[in-house]
Amino acid sequence: MMESVGVYGFCGCKAKNKMKCDSRWEITAAETAPTSAYSSPARSLGDTGITPLSPSHIVNDADPNVSEQQTFLVVVAIDFGTTSSGYAYSFTKEPECIHVMRRWEGGDPGVSNQKTPTTILLTPERKFHSFGYAARDFYHDLDPTEAKQWLYLEKFKMKLHTTGDLTMDTDLTAANGKKVKALEIFAYALQYFKEQALKELSDQAGSEFENSDVRWVITVPAIWKQPAKQFMRQAAYQAGLASPENSEQLIIALEPEAASIYCRKLRLHQMIELSGKAAVNGYSASDTVGAGFAQAKEHVRRNRQSRTFLVENVIGEIWSELEEGDKYVVVDSGGGTVDLTVHQIRLPEGHLKELYKATGGPYGSLGVDYEFEKLLCKIFGEDFIEQFKIKRPAAWVDLMIAFESRKRAAAPDRTNPLNITLPFSFIDYYKKFRGHSVEHALRKSNVDFVKWSSQGMLRMSPDAMNALFKPTIDSIIEHLRDLFQKPEVCTVKFLFLVGGFAEAPLLQQAVHAAFGDKCRIIIPQDVGLTILKGAVLFGLDPAVIKVRRSPLTYGVGVLNRYVEGKHPPEKLLVKDGTRWCTDVFDKFISADQSVALGELVKRSYTPAKPSQLVIVINIYSSELDAVSFITDPGVKKCGTLRLDLTGTSGTAVPARREIQTLMQFGDTEIKATAIDVATSKSVKVGIDFLNY
């Protein structure tokens, strides 16, 4: 009689990695299509499924093919940010030179234009028109009535983080209220970067540069869920950066990982340390927040004309202080999200191991914009602000640009007020809407710290501006405090503060005040480009990241022998005199388990009915760790392997036919394979979070 291992029969994995698994693959015979994950597939089909072989054959190893990398002439990294985006590249023959993209046309006073705003403009016919400063300036110059017909989108990346049920059909809303497919917008944006980069490379090389010569790297927040990461890859395929058949041409890099890789190379003159220790780079601790950083930024700005950054092929001085097992935190504070990642150093190569799974949340600099909008609603009324955004969308964009440059001037020790110019159409439209002036509204509003200036400006006191930052910065500090209480994190040596929002002196001061006594706080000088440059280095040497944490539990649905008292009665299925428990979730890998890049996890199954010739293996995932059945709450189907063994009857097949199932873990892709050991017939599938 055939034995079967229990649900948690992970055969060595569990003991070895001390981890629990949360996904099940369900394998059923499929004369008809499998039903949803939330019914009993085996029962509804009237068919037997698969059952684990005992002993189940488990191997954890890296795929030997992973190291056979395709060769590329150049690596181009795209930092697709919530508020601003850019690209950088390096030729594989000159890996020490990282070139940041050509200077953008346009730009704002008080804002460096090393990147371009993440804004896109479509014509009234929904065709791509322009991106970045060009899109914003063209939209701004349109007549207000004409502007209503054009589709202008900004800060749309956050939609991928905030949408719980993301699919290929998810919509975005343009400034004029019209809906447009998110996949189209992301593909348009990536296609724009592809064309810009290839044109620049061709101009530099003096001949046409082919896309096939380029390895692309796109950065995404580590806290994004799997569907959002897959969505970005699909958009890149649609934009023509790579294809599913040549998927290794595109790497999806996690933003804090990219920052981490760059921070390894930092020399003392390329960073600022926020600490009470001795002066660094000629800046004392009191200088460092604000003044020292301003000097460092000025130094960087003067050096920007070349746009080429030399990355010495050495480990930086800070990094050389790290020893085997030392830990550090990367705080990636961008426009939309803040990502916190804990890495551990592995010597002698200095490879990185993700020690604690990425955490964070929507605490980017957009939160400050949101507080400013709330302040405007308090002064002028929410009904007016909503109408103004719809009726005068280009003027609203103007107002937020004016706020952005003043936001960057906020500092802990500032004493003089910050003036924000109100567009003429704001003043004019308000008078028509309310019947009285903007000045009258400010007097009536009881908002003491915002005054009206006769030059047509809102005059904000420094305290008023600092108050707009407070909710967002408080959220970041609170999240960091929670992280530092974890046992894995309490002995951290360094905290690297990176991302565009890390330039804010108010955030620097808050992080230093809260954690300066716990670890050394380091800020790379050109902090807004840290991720971009790190992503290029990652593309040149993807093997630098060795171990990640699995964000989900993966497994398949199987049949196990029914055990009275252990299994629920509703799961009982009697077939040919054998009592089976259906819908069992058989784990491959657990949420938060350490997974090496390229690692293979193998399991062996056998059809519960020996004559079965079509075997369907349904793959499931869960964010939870303790899952028993594929029908448990939170379990989602994310792939199907259909192995057709018809026509193999002439082959000598053992009585207990072995179906080997393998999962391989890539950058953000997971591939599954089922092999019939007797005939070597196999079928492959990529785990899919968007189409199930």
From TrEMBL:
One GO process term, biological-process aspect: import into nucleus
| GO molecular function per UniProt | ATP binding
**Location(s) in or outside the cell:** Cytoplasm; Nucleus
Residues of the signal peptide: none
Alphabetic keyword roster? Acetylation, ATP-binding, Cytoplasm, Nucleotide-binding, Nucleus
Q: Give the GO cellular component terms, alphabetically.
A: cytoplasm; nucleus
Q: What does this protein do?
A: Adapter protein for SORL1, but not SORT1. Delays SORL1 internalization and affects SORL1 subcellular localization.
Tell me the protein's name. Answer: Heat shock 70 kDa protein 12A
* Protein's organism: Sciurus vulgaris
The UniProt gene name for this protein comes to: HSPA12A
